[in-house]
Amino acid sequence: MTDVYSTYSEETLMKLICQCDEELAFRELYRRHARLLVHIAIRKTGLKSIAEDLVQETFLKFWLGRNKFDIQKNIQAYLNGMLKNNIINYFHQEQKKRTTAFLDEEEVLDNDTSEYLEFNNLHEFYEQSLLKLPQKCREVFILSRKGYSLKEIAASMEISEKTVEAHISKALKILRVEMKDYIAFAVLFLPLI
């Protein structure tokens, strides 16, 4: 299927993706660039599972924003920039987690109950949202979040890696829609760290 696009130039692929929403052209773009991006992310994070997640997130953001892009430069450079931003965000989140661990015990005790309730509410809402996913899609998504690679998931479920990618993309899209109101509420009302 994507072999048809294997001879296409990057510029042609970009036009097909950004102007025609051509998924097979996007898969060819993914095939050409994902491996290098994973290697870059592994060098920066030191963790293969985190690197793969960051690359998946990069391609997901690229696909979701494809109609807004006006890429005048090399697509590899553009994807590298997107990945770099995702890596920076990842480290920023990790730093926030570490900072939280150093808070005074009194502050932690004061906030413990409300944070615990918020976490439980969010977790419960997340679990309910997961149940709305089709069964196979849900199974693939859960395995991906447990750190299994696309290859491992594909082998264990006897499906192709492309099908695994499609299930993860579908799950993220559905969860984003399902949880958008709760996330907006949480961002507005949770205390800043």
What does this structure look like?
- The structure is a single chain.
- This protein is 79% helix and 0% strand.
- By secondary structure, the protein is mainly α.
- Helix 1 packs across helix 2 (23-45), helix 2 (23-45) runs antiparallel to helix 3 and helix 5 (105-131) crosses helix 8 (161-189).
- The longest helix is centred in the C-terminal third of the chain and has 29 residues, at 161-189.
- The radius of gyration is 19 Å and the shape is globular.
- It starts with 9 loop residues before the first helix and ends with a helix.
- Mean pLDDT is 79; it is low at 187-193.
Please compute the radius of gyration using only Cα atoms.
19 Å
Strand proportion, as a percent range, falls in under 5%
Order of helices and strands: HHHHHHHH
> How many alpha or pi helices?
8
The count of strands amounts to 0
What structural class do the secondary elements suggest?
A: mainly alpha
Helix content: over 70%
